[in-house]
Amino acid sequence: MQTTVEAKETLSWRDYYELCKPRVVMLMILTSVIGMLLAVPGMVPLDILILGNIGIALCAGSAATVNHLVDRHIDQKMARTFNRPVAQGRVEPQKALIFAAITGLLGLAILLFFINQITAWLTLASLLGYAVVYTLFLKRATPQNIVIGGLAGAAPPLLGWTAVTGSIDPHGLLLVLIIFAWTPPHFWALAVHRKDEYANADIPMLPVTHGERYTKVHILLYTIVLCLVTLLPYLTGMMGWLYLLGAAVLGAGFLYWALVMLLTERETAGMDTFKYSIVYLMALFVIMLLDHYLVTPALVV
Ligand code: HEM
Ligand SMILES: CC(C)=CCC/C(C)=C/CC/C(C)=C/COP(=O)(O)OP(=O)(O)O
């Protein structure tokens, strides 16, 4: 049988893990790993692959921890977030701050000493972009909060790319643009579903300030923009037919869900679209990788 002390330790370990928003960070790391692999024709040196992603993940986890800390009073007011470690007092604010400082500094040091300066500074900018610019200011100030703040979350594939090449490549920026266009439909689909909670917490998310219909129209518009932006890797010769096929099928799926949200009264449409957005991004990046190794080299030769 587990003793009380052991049970408490297990719980506290889990709380610190939760502070890092692990599932969000894992998808970010998938995009950063793929950004690395797309940056070169062959294999990426293993030390860069491992240390680069550990550094980026630690910084993203640090930013997520600051978000838990700063938002603890908001989180207490929403059913989705009320049980979070800092909101519930299972992790004291001071301890969360120390944890964020340690993970952030460690991540930054790894990037500075083992990767390169440009990746370290871009990662720091993303950390501050999410933890300070989005969380402290934009989230409370404007319904465009997630559009602007989305830039920080969109950065990982570029961070992966610069970790390998040491410079900012237009193809890396294209990957950022894709996630940037993806973020509004990803988040607003959830926000429509959770509108009342955001209103209750006094956060000016788009469905609260402009209503559900306006938000659903904007989800559709951004989804159309996303579909167009995902054509660019093919049109620039960065990707081949396999990617084009994958992007078209996945994009059609996203458009379907955006239309279901706008045109039907289906109650689960918001959450279904949100879940689809995650599968979409994961699948799109995996298809990029398959295309990179199976199709594009043949085009280049
Ligand atoms: C500013 C930009 C973003 C906003 C506002 C946002 C918002 C959210 C919110 C509120 C959730 C929580 C859903 C819940 O608790 O059930 C969520 C979940 C998620 N987000 Fe985002 N997101 C953003 C960017 C990203 C990016 C860039 C990625 C990955 C590349 C991502 C991946 C995920 C994943 C995987 C989940 C599911 C987490 C889970 O199941 O616990 N998000 N997002
Ligand atoms: C260095 C680097 C790559 C940094 C990226 C940082 C990062 C983890 C971004 C996550 C984006 C996200 C989940 C936003 C939701 O915040 P929210 O406060 O609106 O949602 P919540 O209510 O679920 O907390």
Query: What's the name of the CATH homologous superfamily of the largest domain?
Result: UbiA prenyltransferase
The radius of gyration computed from the alpha-carbon positions, rounded to a whole number of angstroms, is 20 Å
Shape: globular
Structural class: mainly alpha
Number of domains: 2
Which fold does the CATH topology of the largest domain refer to?
Tetracycline Repressor, domain 2
Keywords: Cell membrane, Heme biosynthesis, Membrane, Transferase, Transmembrane, Transmembrane helix
InterPro entries: Protohaem_IX_farnesylTrfase (IPR006369), UbiA_prenyltransferase (IPR000537), UbiA_prenylTrfase_CS (IPR030470), UbiA_sf (IPR044878)
Catalytic activity: heme b + (2E,6E)-farnesyl diphosphate + H2O = Fe(II)-heme o + diphosphate
Function: Converts heme B (protoheme IX) to heme O by substitution of the vinyl group on carbon 2 of heme B porphyrin ring with a hydroxyethyl farnesyl side group.
Could you explain how this protein is built, in words?
The chain has 301 residues and is mostly helical. It has two domains: 155 residues, Tetracycline Repressor, domain 2 (Orthogonal Bundle), CATH 1.10.357; 126 residues. The protein contains 16 helices and no strands. The radius of gyration is 20 Å and the shape is globular. The model has no long low-confidence stretch (mean pLDDT 95). The structure holds protoporphyrin IX containing FE and farnesyl diphosphate. Protoporphyrin IX containing FE (HEM) binds next to helix 2, helix 7, helix 9 and helix 15.
